[in-house]
Amino acid sequence: MTTDKNPTSFRLSDQALDNLDKITQATGSSRTAVIEIALAMLARKLEHKSHLQEKIMNNRTINKNSARKVAHQLFTGRSGKVEFYADPVNGELEALLAGEFPSEDFEYICTQNEGQIEFGQELCETDDEIEDLFDQWWNEAGAEWISDLEKSWAESQDL
Q: Residue ranges per domain, the chain?
């Protein structure tokens, strides 16, 4: 493959020139080839990042398995002021009490002053009854609970 040569001049810092020399010595490639490869790699990385950001911006959905785990925590006793956070890439959900910090790159969704899910647990006498009641609540209200969190997430990100 042949390319048209368009002479371009630019200045590089001493550090950049040192790095360029190290790469050309290690690879045996010309300076021009090294710069062209580096620019192509950077362009691909930026394109991927842009695509990933677009995917994230258009797809703020909460992972149902993760949501079920969080709901179960709130159903079986976690109470008090709760802040919800989610990972924009995979939709993993976290519910944190005061003083807890979200995982890196998680986005804030909303705060609930009383995070516990109440559904008649006080009537249960055994753990099995509580689990059965949780399954009932999840089947009846889980999808709506997730939908409400997703709406809050979108609003918190001004989407």
A: 14-58, 64-156
